[in-house]
Amino acid sequence: MLIVTDTYxxxxxxxxTYKNILKISKEKIDIIHPGQFKWRPSPLYPEVQLCTExxxxxxxxxxxKPKHIHIATEGMLGLMARIYCxxxxxP
Length: 91
Known about the structure:
By secondary structure, the chain is α/β, with parallel strands linked by helices.
């Protein structure tokens, strides 16, 4: 399983939930977040990290070969995950 989120490093309920899931899960869960790539702050919401390396994100997802992807946000990471899912028929 793979979780893709553009807000992992923020302090909010969603980010805290994912961090807790990773702590207690017995199965392997990978997570992709902006801290793993180059990013810049959003002009309207500086706390939102906008990834500036979309192709690296796609290649990283491809390298993980996930069977399921949970797309948590609609940012650049979420968009790359959606494109990957569509091209590889991943739910």
